[in-house]
Amino acid sequence: MSRKTVKVAVTGAAGQIGYSLLPRLASGEIFGMDTKISLHFLEITPALPMLEGVVMEMNDSAFPLLENIIVTDDPNIAFDGVNWAMLVGSKPRGKGMLRGDLIRENGPIFTGQGAALQRGASDLRVIVVGNPANTNALIAMNNAPDVPSGRFAALTHLDQNRAYSQIAGKAGVTVNDIRKITIWGNHSATQYPDVSHALINGKPIFDVIDDHEWLRGDFITTVQKRGAAIIQARGKSSAASAANAALNHIQAMESVTPGDNWFSSGVCSDGSYGIDEGLMFSLPIRSDGKGSWSVVQGLEIDAFSQEKINATLEELRNEKAMVAELLA
Ligand SMILES: NC(=O)c1ccc[n+]([C@@H]2O[C@H](COP(=O)([O-])OP(=O)(O)OC[C@H]3O[C@@H](n4cnc5c(N)ncnc54)[C@H](O)[C@@H]3O)[C@@H](O)[C@H]2O)c1
What we know:
Helix content: 40-55%
Number of helices: 12
CATH architecture of the largest domain: Alpha-Beta Complex
CATH topology of the largest domain: L-2-Hydroxyisocaproate Dehydrogenase, Chain A, domain 2
Radius of gyration: 19 Å
CATH superfamily of the largest domain: Lactate dehydrogenase/glycoside hydrolase, family 4, C-terminal
Strand order of the largest sheet: 3-2-1-4-5-6
Structural class: alpha/beta
Low-confidence stretches: none
Shape: globular
Distance between the termini: 32 Å
Bound molecules: nicotinamide-adenine-dinucleotide
Mean pLDDT: 96
Largest sheet: 6 strands, parallel
Number of strands: 14
């Protein structure tokens, strides 16, 4: 898609993902070296002074394509006329906080932001990064009735990247040699990284990797628990890889999906594969590069995969029930 200037809103811009994300957005790497960029930063009021420091650094980088930066604590200003909204900001999970508490704490942020997103450009796209990403995206989508539901997504590209990287390491190949891995369901520990249809250099993965026990066991749990492993090692949640994946998502949505491959994203289910219609569920999709995507149809789901898909589906149904009153 070519535009003269692309307007991108980033919420939670003073946070650690923002710090990795913003310079790459402004560099031209994502929208092309012939597209200028206008950045709209949304933060909560107490974080605005810190955000000023980030803005100083962005200005000091003298990005040739960066037209302007708008800084605000008002979603109506932040989302005005934007082509892309990256919803990164959310309240972090505190010590001892249950996932249910996190869902209830963050939900209200996405009702207000959903309504304000209706001020976006006619080609507005939304990627929700802030956790719980699927359910936050569901809330935003339901509070923005003027924006087509297909424009909303929850980030599972990080899970996909993690899966590709694990397989590449095991097979001794690069990620470019691999195709057709799917992330099903929630961006949480119930997600199902599915290699049933994956190919390595065109060959079925189960013919290339002999350790089938690993493929059906440790591989899956490693991807599911990667976020926790990073927190354990780094003392902070993933930021550079999360920012990278959010940018990969934009690139994937803005271009034609190559060959017969696919990528995964939390999207509004159309009922394919028996997933409740309207649920924000990670599915294998292909993009036409013109703003539309479709779910890859006809993949065979064996009993092993079905059980795993059912588990993550159940979790997302429960999350939806928890925020029922926020779904306008
Ligand atoms: N989907 C994924 O793959 C993935 C991966 C990693 C992290 N995450 C999630 O991304 C989110 C951000 O992570 P981070 O490491 O940058 O966190 P962070 O705490 O460093 O930054 C979050 C920022 O959001 C801001 N914020 C909070 N409420 C806001 C609101 N209502 N409007 C605008 N801004 C608001 C905070 O002030 C803060 O600056 C977290 O929810 C994290 O769990 C998702």
